[in-house]
């Protein structure tokens, strides 16, 4: 191998995306609420952007009523690439913007100030946002600290108990050893105090809190007054793993309990809480705001409408456009205005492109999944993003960005657009069948099986094949686990005779 230093000239062809093209793709990917935040951020950074007032009839203030939907679609030709010609300094764009003032003289204000209605709307929006902020919920630590404060215990024990409480995980378990909670030079007496403090914490509500494993958690919840107390204590202490694996005959052999007694005690055990602290988790579930709505026409056809009523319609300030032509404006000021006009126009075009592309992609999806919407999820058809891309005439990555984190309101409820894409396989008749349909059939077979002798995964493969569905055993096992269905041994009901 020869090593040498020198200059070498190569001709390489590669595609480089302009920053504005990247921005248009980012805008397309935003869900409606994130888009509103993006617009607010851009308005704060670009003084040339203003909100277009909209009349009650939906026509922007000052615009001609003759602008119908078809005109709008022709204006927003979504799949035309944006072109930034630095050599021409975007002169054509600036001339087009200036011509707007002559064509729609009442559209723009003469000064860059916000209208009274706009300021009131902004104030109402902020007020509503503050009113909808959830108050701080009580945490598990708050709940335990409150109970601890009501007890009359020594300061040393109180400090140790508070330290233990602060070390509990979100489910209420103490996953750290007591020794690790104490200083390295702690004496045996201090460790004994820590054990006493732990007992105090474990006596608090909810029952089972402060346990170091599942077995201790369940035992802490037992009460001598509850049914099958002795049997439950035995089962939890010595046979918890056997219960989880449904090895009831083995438990029967070791304990002498009958199968019926074990199952009755097991039913009581299921009433205990394996995660006592989980009820205090602050699980914030955001409201889903649909980006699209599916409407049914009088002739029964499904049509998609974009939900952008709360998205401000933007325009470029007439004040700054006129200032650009003012001979008193300095070169630096004109350069600044040109740069901001260019950025504003790119944003407006990107928002229009997002709306049009999203509507076209969603309509193509709805047209393909008509039976899903009409009859239910079990009728979903196999669908790939490439199919929609080919139908709409865009790149598959455009479809991916368009459906990402977008939701659609349908007569059957709100669905993410990604829900309508489904892989599948081919049945014996040569027809494509979605994996959703296979999972539904698998659930149906298991629901109707004899619980005294439930089907193994191999038997499930055979039964699915009898339905014309050729599925591998590993696929059946994978879907069974994803659906939360136990194995055949765990599904067996030992009280029934096989």
UniProtKB/TrEMBL annotation:
Keywords: DNA-binding, DNA-directed RNA polymerase, Nucleotidyltransferase, Sigma factor, Transcription, Transcription regulation, Transferase. One of its GO terms (biological process) is DNA-templated transcription initiation. Pfam families: Sigma54_AID (PF00309), Sigma54_CBD (PF04963), Sigma54_DBD (PF04552). Residues 131-320 form the RNA polymerase sigma factor 54 core-binding domain. One of its GO terms (molecular function) is DNA binding. Gene3D superfamilies: Homeodomain-like (1.10.10.60), RNA polymerase sigma-54 factor, core-binding domain (1.10.10.1330). InterPro entries: RNA_pol_sigma_54, RNA_pol_sigma_54_core-bd, RNA_pol_sigma_54_DNA-bd, RpoN_core-bd_sf. Residues 335-492 form the RNA polymerase sigma factor 54 DNA-binding domain. One of its GO terms (cellular component) is DNA-directed RNA polymerase complex. It comes from the Bacteria. Belongs to the sigma-54 factor family. This is RNA polymerase factor sigma-54. The gene is rpoN.
């Amino acid at each position: 191998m020869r090593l040498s230093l020198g200059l070498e000239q190569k001709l390489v062809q590669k595609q480089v995306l302009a920053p504005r093209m990247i921005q248009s793709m980012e805008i397309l990917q935003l869900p409606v609420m994130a888009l509103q935040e993006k617009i607010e951020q851009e308005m704060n950074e670009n003084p040339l952007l203003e909100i277009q007032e909209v009349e009650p009839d939906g026509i922007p203030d000052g615009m001609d009523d003759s602008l119908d939907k078809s005109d709008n679609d022709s204006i927003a030709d979504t799949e035309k690439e944006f072109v930034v010609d630095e050599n021409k300094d975007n002169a054509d764009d600036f001339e087009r913007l200036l011509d707007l003032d002559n064509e729609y003289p009442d559209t723009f204000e003469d000064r860059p100030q916000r209208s009274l209605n706009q300021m009131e709307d902004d104030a109402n929006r902020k007020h509503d946002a503050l009113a909808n902020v959830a108050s701080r919920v009580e945490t598990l630590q708050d709940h335990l600290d409150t109970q601890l404060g009501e007890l009359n215990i020594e300061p040393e024990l109180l400090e140790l108990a508070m330290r233990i409480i602060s070390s509990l995980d979100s489910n209420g378990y103490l996953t750290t050893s007591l020794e690790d909670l104490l200083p390295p030079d702690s004496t045996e007496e201090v460790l004994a105090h820590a054990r006493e403090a732990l007992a105090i914490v474990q006596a608090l509500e909810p029952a089972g809190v402060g346990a170091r494993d599942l077995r201790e958690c369940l035992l802490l919840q037992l009460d001598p007054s509850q049914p099958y107390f002795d049997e439950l204590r035995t089962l939890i202490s010595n046979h918890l793993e056997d219960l989880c694996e449904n090895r009831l005959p083995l438990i029967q052999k070791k304990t002498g309990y009958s199968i019926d007694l074990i199952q009755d005690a097991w039913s009581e055990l299921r009433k205990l809480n394996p995660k006592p602290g989980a009820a205090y988790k602050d699980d914030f579930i955001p409201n889903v705001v649909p980006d699209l709505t599916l409407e049914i026409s009088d002739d029964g056809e499904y049509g998609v409408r974009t939900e952008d009523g709360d998205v401000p319609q933007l325009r470029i300030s007439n004040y700054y456009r006129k200032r650009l032509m003012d001979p008193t404006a300095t070169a630096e000021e004109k350069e600044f205005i040109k740069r901001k006009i260019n950025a504003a126009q790119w944003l407006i075009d990107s928002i229009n492109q997002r709306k049009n592309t999203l509507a076209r992609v969603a309509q193509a999806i709805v047209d393909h999944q008509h039976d899903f919407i009409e009859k239910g999820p079990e009728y979903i058809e196999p669908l790939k993003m490439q199919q929609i891309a080919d139908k709409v005439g865009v790149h598959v990555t455009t479809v991916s960005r368009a459906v990402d984190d977008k939701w659609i309101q349908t007569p059957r409820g709100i669905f993410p657009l990604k829900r309508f894409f489904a892989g599948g396989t081919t049945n014996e008749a040569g027809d494509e069948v979605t994996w959703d349909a296979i999972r539904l059939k698998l659930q149906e077979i298991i629901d109707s099986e004899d619980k005294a002798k439930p089907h193994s995964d191999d038997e499930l493969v055979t039964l699915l094949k009898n339905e014309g569905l050729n599925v591998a055993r590993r696929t059946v096992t994978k879907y069974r686990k994803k659906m939360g269905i136990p194995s055949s041994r765990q599904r067996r009901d030992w009280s029934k005779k096989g």
